Amino acid sequence: MVLNLPPTPADANPVILPGLLSGLGVTRRPVPTWITDPCLVESIASGLVEIDDDFMARDEPTLRQIEKRIAAACCFYLVCQQAHVAHLERRIAANRTTGLE
What we know:
The chain is mainly α. It has helices at residues 20-23, 38-46, 53-56, 63-98. It has 2 domains: 18-61, no CATH class; 62-101. The protein is 52% helix and 0% strand.
């Protein structure tokens, strides 16, 4: 799909999307100042750990933000666990029908 966009003027400022340079490894990712563990700081800076923009905007996360992140992580874990159980149940059922019980 080709977009029919107007030409960019020759004197236009370059557009750099947020995170593009750090995503390409040209610059380091920003790390919140309230994180002090050197290993975690390095993991965030190298892109191994993602930090939500909500946490980047403040010096420290609010209790509500922490609660939301914990709830999201718990929901994700529960969904993964349910999917794994369903997968195991399908395998058991398939083994029963083929006599590989």
